[in-house]
Amino acid sequence: MDEWVTRILNGITYGGLLFLLASGFTLGLGIMKIVNIAHGALYLITAYVAWSVFQDTDSFLLTVLACCVLGGLLALALYAGLLQRLHQRPLAQILVTMGVTLIISEFGVVWWGGFPRTLARPDPFAGTVDLGTVSFPTYRFFMLGAAIVVAILLWLLLERTRVGALVRASVDDEEMSRGMGVNVGRLYLLVFAVTGVLAGLAGALGAPFLGAYQGAQFEVLLLALLVAVIGGLGSIKGALVAGLLIGIIDSVGKSLFPELAHFTLFAPLIIVLAVRPTGLFGKA
Amino acid sequence: MRRFLRTRPSATKVLVVLALLIAAVAVPPLLGPFPLSILMLIVIFAILAMSLDLLMGYTGMESLGQAAFFGIAAYTIAILTTRYTLGWELAIPLALFGSVALAAVGGLLAVRLTGLFFLVMTLVFAQVLWGLSHRWGTMTGGYLGLHGIKRPIDALDSDLSFYYLSLAIFVFCGLLMFRLVRSPFGLTLRGIKDSELRMRTSGYNVFFHRWLVFVIAGGFAGVAGVLYTYSTQFISPTVLGVETSFDAMLMVIVGGAGTLTGAIIGAVLVTGLRNYLSVYVDNWVIALGVAYILTVFFAPRGILGLLPRRWRVASAVRQEAAAVDADIQATPTREAATVRDVAEPPSEGDGRAEAEETLRLDGVGISFGRVRAVNDVSLTAYKGTRRAILGPNGAGKTTLFNIITGVYKPSHGRISLFGQDVTAMSAHARTRMGLSRTFQITNLFPTLTVMNNVRLGIMGVRRTKYVMHVPVTWRDDVNDRCKTLLEMAGLWEERDTEVANLSYGHQRQLELVVTLASDPQVLLLDEPAAGLSLSESRSMVQLIKALDPRLTVLIIEHDMDVAFEVANEVTVMHLGEILAEGSAEDVRANATVREVYFGQAYA
Fold this sequence. Notes:
heterodimer; A: mainly alpha; two-stranded antiparallel ribbon; 3% strand; B: 603 residues; alpha/beta; ABC transporter involved in vitamin B12 uptake, BtuC; six-stranded mixed β-sheet; four-stranded antiparallel β-sheet; 24 helices
């Protein structure tokens, strides 16, 4: 019984991190139709930076801020420098962001070396919470809490603000938005910067958990892809539900069939794509 | 009597290929072991890149999972020969079977998806296998991989002899693929890339064609995988990784997607870059990343795309033109069944009662959300019917056509064609029964020549479409029919023009020709004269009036003169329903129609 409590809790809290990893990616995909292969690389570089900043300052708050700013700036540069000129050309975007991924990851090797860098769990969340029969790392609960807060903020931003309304209108009918005087280009730049901030946040919060290591650029990308597609491209609600669901499936699957770990992770995706390609909450 | 109609490669091309082949055979013995090993990989990855090009470049299926079929064959060989000490005689066929079977099963899931979803699905295939290879350590050796894979026979132990074997297999696979893309089946792939909807309504089971090429590409990727395992004699999860799939994609694009030669050039460049730089340059991955970005911005259509245009298309097209000219001029036209001489008067007096019923709609309707686009429409058409469907914008006319042709499934009602219920039948099956249509917005294959557009129109209802081993230009039966049809419309001179470069008026006429190419008995024309100049409109009317009188023709038209000139019956639709029906005079006299259609003042 306790085993199962731990498994499920592991799953749900890991699901929180999955949502954080995927939220920026699904936003970019849903709103701007950009398959940002470099999303994983943004995670990687900000996780590396998180390690360095935390080493130097010992402040987790500062670490998170630095990562969010860096993620946002990198995304801005990526969009303004490269992706803006590849509007509506998915294959070109995929190749360019793949190139960017290779460059960023290799830069990580040059700067931080080939070893994995994992943050120590920062102070207020370093211990464990006692849940009667089982005790559970506090940091995992923190990840889940952060995911829920981010989900609510994003939802508010998209559904309850003027900018959000403009974004939704532009997704629906870009030409009409332009015609009505909305600066769609600037709006998209802003949205893409937000996806970068989210990647940076995931990098900061993921650094003590997944860590920064070569290979993370693709693993994180795949996890983000998984969550985004199952949840429905662009759906924040879908990403949250899918993240938690996949977290649980993965945690249970891993403990029951350790050798098939990746299979249990991707099997739901194959089923969803076969039965309902638009994902759980996606629009057709 | 075989006729000289065929395109053959130009002499220059043959010479260049021969020279390269001789170099590929003569140079390697002079090379050191390192360059030789790279050459071996180039030849192997060229097979992989060409297989991906069949999907990406020709069919427009952008796959990020070609590594799956490459890797599964590679792992099958490695596992069977090292863990089960199976002989290569069994291991190789099993490995190839593995690739083909995986593609066949995975294809069932993947090819229904398009665009982004297809990309994701294929990426997932490769990723699932990559995960398995990583975690299933007892079988795959985990991240360490499997070592000590022995080459099939001792004679292949030297890299030089194995290189020659790989080269031979590469040439063989290359020839097969070159043959495939020039075949009728290959042309259908390019048709799918250009316009899937046009293909479906021309009688092609697009799903099946996609699946077939997915399986074929999977098989060729498997061949590459087998060679790869034996060449490196070591295998690790990297062969199934994202990098392998991406590299294959880069090869296709660097060289120029849609040209198998481009895939080969890409394999040379990318494999060379990867292996040479990794030895001589620190942090060479950055260079690879830069290569990705530069390719997209400076050579989006690949190295071949940078060449002057006439070098690329010239020989093939000009030759085809010359060959066809030399041959078919003054050939008497056969099979002119669809088109009647304009002078001949239509046979009057076949009483409606005896006339054969061709198309019947019973209470057909469709809703999109809360909008009832078409509601309870019943309609019967007979052999020889010429019916115009009129109605203001948004009346549901085009939607009705989409229901009749099977593009939309009606939410209620029943459709029968030649007395058979076709309500549940797919669009392509209805076309094969003798239904054909044009579209309101011209729907052709813009990157194909006029001739190839007509060829696709013809082959949709013939079994020729599945032929893979003969170039499409060699099908004399199809060529003759093309000539007949194109001359009828006065487009024969334009046969080698890419449709995107054709004038709008000619495009409208060509669409009618492509629609007639499937020898339909029921023809649906959706605003054939829309957007045409007065004279173009006149010749369109002439074309329509010259149609075989036995055809059933339904025509949507806003131009009253056109509508009343070609049709003797009229159906008026308004807000998704039939408002009036009858002869032109009846409808003109109908007060409601006048109000709706011509405005209140005329009522």
